[in-house]
């Protein structure tokens, strides 16, 4: 029985009980009807780290840490200062900064290879079963990422996920990176649902906090085993993979 039929049956049962004189508590509940995914919750970036170590032996881990940190800091700074450029541009700028900071010789060929790695990401092993389960339950699915449209399309194709997402929402549309509320609002505008009916699957702890403050039920796919951010709110569920997402969506209900 799918969610719609279940709810209809429950409503008919409640009505029958009232007609017979039974007294039943009534509580308004809203189930989750859609899920929006961050890009890295779906696509596995680890091969880029492997390539970084290949190109800069002994420095791959340090490069990835500096690069990723600056990548998101640049996104936030550009949003705050009203100087938005797309995520591909931000990623290249962050790479050049990280290599300069570590005194690594970033040749044009090495930069191209590291950048192109962002167009060939496969899905994490747990992603396909989770998406199949959600789709079978009638849950609507979309990407909601900082990735450009070209990055989304390339990685969806490489991962073989063309049939799962009804929308590919990119922050390019609103010129504001997550966790700016304008970015999460894209999910509400697309699905035409209340915030409480749209779950957000986050990869970064900061993204989980941003989505939770916006009003989404949040499933933090904490693949890196990071501590929660000290920002006053927490995700509704924290797990190392997306395997528990279908159960979270099926069990979660909000008044």
Explain this structure.
- With 255 residues, the chain is of the alpha/beta class.
- It has 2 domains: 30-44 and 122-254, 3-Layer(aba) Sandwich (Rossmann fold); 46-119, Putative phosphatase, domain 2 (DNA polymerase, domain 1, Orthogonal Bundle).
- 49% of the residues lie in helices and 12% in strands.
- It is built from 11 helices and 8 strands.
- The strands form 2 sheets. Strands 4-3-2-5-6-7 form a 6-stranded parallel sheet, sandwiched between helices.
- The two termini are 23 Å apart.
- Mean pLDDT is 89; it is low at 3-30.
CATH-derived architecture of the largest domain: 3-Layer(aba) Sandwich
| Total DSSP helices | 11
What's the shape? globular
CATH superfamily of the largest domain: HAD superfamily/HAD-like
Instruction: Tell me how many strands there are.
Output: 8
Fraction of residues in H or I helices: 40-55%
Main beta-sheet annotation: 6 strands, parallel
The overall pLDDT, averaged over residues, is: 89
What is the succession of H and E elements? Answer: HEEHHHHHHEHEHEHEEHE
* Range of strand content: 5-15%
Distance between the termini: 23 Å
As laid out across the biggest beta sheet, the strand order is 4-3-2-5-6-7
The CATH topology of the largest domain turns out to be: Rossmann fold
Q: What is the gyration radius calculated from CA atoms?
A: 21 Å
């Amino acid at each position: 029985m799918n969610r719609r039929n279940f709810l209809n049956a429950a409503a008919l049962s409640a009505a029958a009980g009232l007609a017979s004189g039974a007294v039943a508590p009534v509580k308004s509940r809203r189930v989750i009807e859609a899920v929006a995914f961050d890009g890295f919750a779906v696509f596995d970036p680890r091969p880029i780290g492997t390539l970084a170590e290949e190109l800069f032996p002994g420095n791959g881990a340090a490069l990835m840490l500096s690069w990723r940190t600056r990548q998101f800091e640049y996104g936030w700074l550009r949003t705050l200062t009203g100087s938005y450029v797309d995520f591909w541009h931000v990623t290249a700028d962050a790479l050049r900064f990280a290599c300069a900071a570590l005194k690594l010789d970033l040749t044009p060929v090495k930069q191209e290879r590291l950048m192109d790695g962002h167009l060939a990401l496969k899905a994490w092993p747990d992603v396909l079963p989770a998406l199949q389960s959600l789709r079978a339950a009638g849950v609507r699915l979309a990407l909601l990422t900082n990735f450009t449209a070209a990055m989304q399309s390339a990685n969806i194709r490489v991962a073989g996920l063309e049939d799962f997402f009804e929308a590919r929402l990119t922050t390019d549309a609103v010129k504001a990176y997550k966790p700016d509320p304008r970015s999460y609002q894209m999910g509400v505008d697309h699905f035409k649902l209340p915030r409480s009916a749209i779950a957000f699957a986050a990869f970064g702890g900061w993204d989980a906090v941003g989505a939770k403050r916006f009003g989404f039920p949040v499933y933090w796919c904490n693949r890196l085993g990071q501590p929660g951010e000290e920002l006053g709110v927490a995700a509704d569920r924290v797990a190392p993979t997306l395997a528990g997402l279908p159960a979270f969506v099926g069990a979660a209900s909000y008044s």
